[in-house]
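HOLO CASE FILE
Compound: zinc ion
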Amino acid sequence: MDQHRVMEGVKSFKKNGIRITPQRMAIMEYLATTESHPTADEIFKSLTNKFPNMSNGTVYNNLKCLKKYGFIKELSFGQSSSRYEWKTSFHYHVICTSCGKMRDFNYPELKEVEQFAKIKSGFEVSRHLFEIHGICPDCHNKTQNGEMDDPLLPTFY
Ligand SMILES: [Zn+2]
Ligand SMILES: [Zn+2]
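Model generated. Tokens follow.
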């Protein structure tokens, strides 16, 4: 449990005079303790049991607020919905092309690629996106055990 992350968040919100609603607290706790990089929709679905009256908009507003104060990071990938994660040290992601699971891995940031692109193109480079695609151990085991008789082909985008 990364309860200290949540406590940090709470402290900083108090300092800024921002009210911490039970929903905001729950969203913070969820993101501080999950590895799954959920979408707003996934967060909403997993918290509706606890907060049956909470709307999708509440989740979005809270995510916006948490992002504004630098607690969480929004990850956007092309057309699909943004995913959110607690802001930690720099890392890249490996993504399962079969189930969409996303995991962190630490690797030095590829700053020299940005430098190279800048020199080659004359662009003011602001960022780069880099992610690894593959099949996660769970999906790999399923295919091997014959549970998935029609394995999804990896999608490249
Ligand atoms: Zn998978
Ligand atoms: Zn991550």
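CASE NOTES: Residues 3-15 form the longest helix (13 residues). The pocket of zinc ion (ligand 2) is lined by residues 37, 85, 91, 93, 104 (CB under 6 Å).
CLOSED: yes
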